[in-house]
Amino acid sequence: MAGKKAHLSIDGIAESIELPVYPGTTGPDVIDVRSLTSHDVFTFDPGFMSTASCESKITYIDGDKGILLYRGYPIEQLADESDYLECCYLLLNGELPDAKQKAEFVKAIRYHTMVHEQIHHFFNGFPRAAHPMAIMVGVVGALSAFYHDALMIDKEDHRKTAALRLIAKMPTIAAMCYKYSIGQPFMYPRNDLDFSANFLYMMFGTPCENYVPSPVLTDAMDKIFLLHADHEQNASTSTVRLAGSTGANPYACISSGITALWGPAHGGANEAVLKMLMEIGDESNIDKFIKRAKDKDDPFRLMGFGHRVYKNFDPRAKVMRVTCQKVLADLGKENDPLLRIAMKLEKIALEDQYFIDRNLYPNVDFYSGIILKAIGIPVNMFTVIFATGRTPGWVAHWHEMIGNPFKIARPRQLYTGPAMRNYPVRK
Ligand code: SDX
After folding, report:
1. Cβ–ligand 1 contact at 293 (below 6 Å)
2. Which terminus of the chain is more solvent-facing, meaning fewer CB atoms within 10 Å of its CB: N or C?
């Protein structure tokens, strides 16, 4: 990548430092700072606000324009025309599948949905009241035990099999986390149901009677998985890449991504949004919470608002908002009190100078929780749903990294601790 250069002059260093500048297909150029260590200087960027950690061809975000592309396709078009498994194929392979490729992929996922029977016993070590995310982190990490030896990550077919297994097993494990928490028996996946219908079946079916997932809820579930499938180098994906750069087992890497996702500033926000809306309780309380969100001395933030990259509407939130209104109308819940509070909160915040000045708009988590609640999914399962949806993104980034020359990720630091000093001589 020859071309533009950046010239850095640093007080105390005689010569100007010339750094290569690389253009992407679109978006900001990057300055290659790798040679700076030879000048005994590091870059400093806590939170990686201005740092490109890698080169990737998978997903592109334009935060100012509110654009999100999976392999170049706008998220709005994929939400309208595609489905979750087709997007999984797209993220993993780079192109949309033809009919034969799609059928083969769907079949391959279908025949990996079961988990080893021993996994069932793994759950028994958890209290029934354990947060489902704590269980999911443990169970997904434990998958390493079942596939550790059958995986040579430098072989593409081994990596692709691990990707299929993870995409296929996450909904099964997610549903098992829910069933375990309510004391109901696990439901085995069914090969006669499509991906999202099968997930709802494993969540809400019981051995006592036949459960037929409603097409409206199945479509909403599929759209939620699709909208969460990938999002560039977010905190959890970066965690997966960092763990993967050590050569760790992909199941352990995905487990580390689930752990990072859990935080309320990231994937835990959908659960936090619902808790916030329930705490607001009535439209008359909204102003009090807006005031708290603006108070520097109050740690409260408006959950579901703001984003590190989007300084415009999160395009996923726009799709989610329409889906939310459709699902609630189809369920006869268009007057859902939480939706009314959410719509009023959104209107007030978008007109408030504090939020306008800071480009704080609703993000993907603002509406997803209301849909999930309408589908009947408990609040503590929301981030588990997010993790399930995000799995193809995590595995696609892991696969992309391992499939190309990579180095172990090992950031440096600005050290401001004590200078070297001697251990005090004992008197
Ligand atoms: C996801 O990275 C991804 O792509 C993530 C994600 C994905 O798909 O992977 O998109 C999913 O994580 C979406 C974000 C979900 N999180 C939330 O909804 C939690 C609430 N949002 C905030 O915590 C916050 O907006 C972040 C964490 C999302 C972004 O934080 P930044 O980019 O570090 O911004 P910041 O904290 O520096 O905030 C800038 C200013 C500050 O005020 P000032 O110091 O300038 O006066 O905006 C304020 C913040 O106090 N601010 C908020 C706010 N978010 C930022 N004030 C009130 N409510 C908020 N929600």
Report:
1. yes
2. C
By alpha-carbon position, which residue is closest to atom 31 of ligand 1? 308
Average pLDDT over residues 379-383: 95
Strand 73-74 vs strand 67-70: parallel, antiparallel, or unpaired?
Answer: antiparallel
Q: Is the pLDDT of residue 1 over 60?
A: no
- Tokens found for residue 55: 């080169």
- Ligand 1 atom index nearest CA of 267: 12
* Residue 301 in contact with ligand 1 by CB distance below 6 A: yes
| CA of residue 303 to ligand 1 center, whole Å | 8
Contact of 301 with 279, CB cutoff 8 Å:
no
End-to-end Cα spacing for the chain:
63
Residue that is written with structure tokens 């603006």 in the block? 294
Does any ligand 1 atom lie closer than 6 A to the CB of residue 265?
yes
User: Which residues form the catalytic set?
Assistant: 266, 307, 365
pLDDT tens-place string over residues 286-302: 999 999 999 999 999 99
| Cβ–Cβ under 8 Å, residues 334 and 325 | yes
How many helices, marked H, and strands, marked E, lie in the chain? 17, 6
The whole-angstrom separation of Cα 74 and Cα 316 is 10
